[in-house]
Amino acid sequence: MRDSNTQTLYDYLVSEYNHHFDYWDWSYLDGRRVDVATQPKMWDYIRAVQTAMQQVQSILDMRTGGGEKFADLLRQYPVPHAYATEGYAPNLAMAHRLLDPLGATVYAVDDETLPFADNTLELIINRHGSYNPREVLRVLKPGQHFITQQVSDQANVRIHELLGRQKELLSYEGAPHKSAWNLEYATHELHAHGWQIIEQHEHFHTTRFLDLGAFVYYLKAIPWEVPDFSINAYFDKLIEIQRIFERDGMLDIPFHTFFIIARKP
């Protein structure tokens, strides 16, 4: 039996959790979730891709999400043969809606196997999606580039700690779980498969939540981060997190990304 204050918090969090999330439209969290830089960022993913797109006739955007960023890129720099893959079902309809009119072909994928013949593509890009370095190497033409921005295993670790759970590392189909996922591991893995590393950087910043509802909505919107997340399953932990907001007025979550441009010999 919950007291009135606890029930009010529960009802509020359920309402936040159930608020509609439209693909990658984060406007509901405007002013409630902000990025706080802790160091200068040494790369611009979009600018790097724009530069590369002007020199190729074919491009693949791996794990395109809803296709918004890729669609914007193709409108600015049309590429004759454009492709995208996506494995998250809710995103596929949006990706087709945005990319089909631009002449891009969207493939539904279940793993990191790419639906292309060997030595087919001139540019492969990947923003925050898993990939198999051997498979990317296979479909890329010699001398061409793979551009990726990745979220490391240190991103959002505090979320898992606050919820009393262990963060799991992802792996690609048929491969064991990675022992780590960071710039050092990723570049070593690419080198081991024969890639040449052209550029590499990493960046640390903080995601600041200004209320618990924003925190709950964020976790609902990215279900792969805490797959079993629900208000009921984690309510006791959410009560503890609410006390942090009451004490500090905010909740800071360290975040870590890295960037690589690799070339197929």
From TrEMBL:
Position of the signal peptide: none
Recorded superkingdom: Bacteria
Gene3D superfamilies: Vaccinia Virus protein VP39
InterPro entries membership: 23S_rRNA_MeTrnsfrase_RlmA, SAM-dependent_MTases_sf
PANTHER family registered for this protein in UniProt: METHYLTRANSFERASE, METHYLTRANSFERASE TYPE 11 DOMAIN-CONTAINING PROTEIN
Protein name: Methyltransferase type 11
